């Protein structure tokens, strides 16, 4: 097997496994532990998961490149690892949705409405939130749109980590290979 593909599958798979664990934790605990359902926690986990991009590129540089890698090759490998992780994340999310009978968007819209009522929003504001929720629900029912939305949650993090990894790891003196 091509080494680039092998590294991409291994490290992209490890990243996807971390993202799967994140989905399992959020799916299980989001009602009981509030911080697991926050954007900050979610993006922190995505950043940790995408750290496998850096690890994979470094390992490739050290083993396959003899401690040296050019920016373009590092970026390409990093993006490929991130792509595998992103695809894994989308498939895992789709599996989660199937297991939970696709109720995510219904639960999300219901929470928005509960929060609106609890904060004392006017009837007109609640009607607007309801209409927006219905539009989101209809859009999310389309699997292609839903999968693209899911991919866009994690893809920017993967691209950023791939770019930073390529910049850093093109310098062979940074984290040199161990003899």
Name the overall outline.
elongated
Radius of gyration: 20 Å
Portion of residues within helices: over 70%
Extended strand count: 0
* Poorly predicted tracts of residues: none
Mean pLDDT: 91
N-to-C terminal Cα separation, in Å? 26 Å
User: Count of helices?
Assistant: 6
* Proportion of strand residues: under 5%
Helix/strand-derived category reads: mainly alpha
The H/E string reads HHHHHH
Q: What is the makeup of the main sheet?
A: none
Question: Overview of this structure, please?
Answer:
With 179 residues, this protein is mostly helical. Helix content is 79%, strand content 0%. α1 runs parallel beside α3 and α3 packs antiparallel against α6. The relative contact order is 0.16.
Short key terms for the protein model shown above:
6 helices, 179 residues, elongated, mainly alpha
Give a short summary of the structure.
The protein is mostly helical.
Describe the SSE topology.
Elements: H1 3-29, H2 39-63, H3 71-99, H4 104-118, H5 123-140, H6 143-169
